[in-house]
Design goal:
Rossmann fold; 9 helices; alpha/beta; two-stranded antiparallel sheet; 11 strands; nine-stranded mixed β-sheet
Length: 257
């Protein structure tokens, strides 16, 4: 049976960029179809309507210009839906905002990064796991974030780290895999987004981000890992875990984009 992936869309590509680059659901569908051609997808725009039932094998939580600690009822409703899906032994792939959401609502800490904005290509060192490609030690992905996970959730397993973002990717209980970078982005879109935000980023961050685009990226590698992680059989820790979302303290901070 083909893998059914639900895309929990938490934001949209800026309107003036959609004509050339499409919206986030298409980016994810194109990426994951490239590594699993039989996968099928259902998209949910969660800012408008949360899924009524848990009907997919796995869910992707997309990036967002908002912060996970923003006082938006739909963000907490999304965390509650994720907990419900995980309690039904479904899998979760958290991307950027989704990575931070799993930390923020399930026992970790998210806050603005002391180093400021991360844009362009960032390379993380990875620790080998059974669902990874053999011999891969680094993972380079496009990034666009100002917030970071500062503290891992309880029982999380860190697998990706870099100097700019020490908690760059983690798993939880054979059900959750997250990454701070954006495997769904291509370099042209990343450049267009940086150009749109040039004044916010400042010239030094903007220039460094542009220069980094010469670095090859490993988007398909991460997608392959995520599919392998989702397809693995859950261990005893997954079967015994009860997932419950909570609303932690909100830091005084600017929103991520």
């Amino acid at each position: 049976m083909s893998l059914h992936i639900g895309i929990l869309q938490t934001d949209s590509v800026l309107e003036h960029l959609q004509g050339e680059y499409g919206d986030y659901p298409k980016m994810f569908m194109d990426l994951f179809s490239s590594v699993d051609p039989e996968a099928r997808f259902t998209n949910y725009v969660v800012q408008d309507t949360m899924p009524k039932t848990v009907e997919c094998d796995a869910y992707i939580v997309t990036g967002s210009r908002l912060s996970v600690y923003d006082d938006e009822p739909w963000i907490f409703a999304l965390a509650e839906f994720i907990a419900e899906a995980l309690n039904q032994n479904k899998k979760l792939i958290g991307i950027c905002f989704g990575h931070q959401l799993m930390a923020h609502f399930f026992g970790g800490v998210v806050a603005p990064a002391d180093a400021g904005w991360a844009v362009g290509v960032h390379t993380s060192q990875v620790e080998s796991r059974p669902w990874m490609s053999a011999g891969v030690e680094n993972l380079s992905l496009l990034s666009s974030h100002k917030d970071q996970v500062r503290q891992l959730p309880e029982n999380a397993d860190l697998f990706a780290t870099n100097a700019f973002c020490p908690i760059a990717g983690f798993t939880m209980a054979d059900q959750v895999i997250t990454i701070q970078g954006h495997p769904e982005f291509n370099k042209n879109y990343a450049q267009a987004l940086m150009t749109h935000r040039q004044a916010i980023l400042g010239e030094q961050v903007f220039s460094k981000g542009l220069s980094s685009l010469t670095t090859p990226i490993d988007s398909q590698t991460f997608a392959q890992w995520a599919v392998a992680f989702v397809n693995q059989s859950g261990g005893a820790d997954a079967a015994e875990k009860t997932w419950q979302a909570r609303w932690p303290a909100t830091p005084a901070a600017e929103s991520e984009a």
